Amino acid sequence: MEREITKIRNRMDELDARLVGLLNERASCAQEIGRLKDTVGLKVYQPQREREVLSHVRSENAGPLDADAITRLFERIIDEARRLERSSG
Asked: Which of 89, 74, 63 is nearest to 19 (CA)?
């Protein structure tokens, strides 16, 4: 059993590393969007877009995380993206 736990934990570590890479790639996109918004005078906070993102990720979710968990995770990701957009403009 200990070997199986170690194997699963190693897989989780690999997934975590991929998640970090993807989150940083997404953050780079947010920085670029922040620069573009600043150039054309758009506000960083765009609630309609945030609703679209949350709706999209909920529709992509096949579980085992439920829709509320996905929403909470992406609300935090969006908060950090908004912070980066503000600092990039």
From this structure: 74
> Which pairs from 70-79 meet CB under 8 Å and 24+ separation?
77/23, 77/26, 78/50, 78/53, 78/54
pLDDT tens for each residue of 13-66: 999 999 999 999 999 999 999 999 999 999 999 999 999 999 999 999 999 999
Contacts 24+ apart (CB under 8 A), 67-73: none
Type and span of the H or E element at 71: helix 67-88
CA distance linking residue 84 with residue 89, whole number of Å: 9
The CATH number that applies at residue 51 is 1.20.59.10
Reported pTM: 0.89
Q: By residue range, what is the domain housing residue 76?
A: 2-88
